[in-house]
Model the fold of this input.
Amino acid sequence: MHTSIAAGLCVVIGSVDYVTGRETSMEQAFLVSTGIVALAEIGDKTQLLAFLLAARFRKPLPICLGIFIATIVNHAGAGALGAWITSQVSPQTMRWVLGVGFLAMAIWTLIPDKIDDEVEGGGRFKMGVLGTTIVAFFLAEMGDKTQIATVALAAQYQSFIAVVMGTTLGMMIANVPAVYLGDRMSGKMPVRLVHSIAALIFAALGVATLLGAGQSLGF
Done:
């Protein structure tokens, strides 16, 4: 939990730099992506899935490896999509798409999540712990808020590697403790507070983008 809070502070610092119009660096893209996804992932359905898999299999190492593989593949695709969208859309249009998108993410982050029935049933397949985790997490992450955030962040910062590395690390920061600590952790996290912080950060990025804070990036 302390790690997530520290990551959140990195996001705030990165957002201030962004609003003041400083040139975006790979380091900033990495820190913002890490912090915002780590915060958004708390209480998300993929974290709930991590709790479920940990309770079902009680093999944390292959579960964590499966989460890493599924996340990096999923987010690499999302980051590539974000980079492609940037190359296809005019800067002015992209500014509005990103601004409204970040505001929508702020609202979405406040909505409680649950595990879809088809994702929760992923353990039916005889693929072993690693295979089950990869498939279940990949499916759960499709269309999830953290995947959509990866698309938006890749388009915003135009730094594919930094964003994908950051969002993947953010997912691991939130989910590895969930796998190892399980029930001892689930009831002690201030999920609503963490979601409120993440929503505020998304909203700040959205407003900053709409007000033209990204002009140094061409938005």
Summary: Residues 1-23, 214-219 have pLDDT under 50 and may be disordered. DSSP finds eleven helices and no strands in the chain.
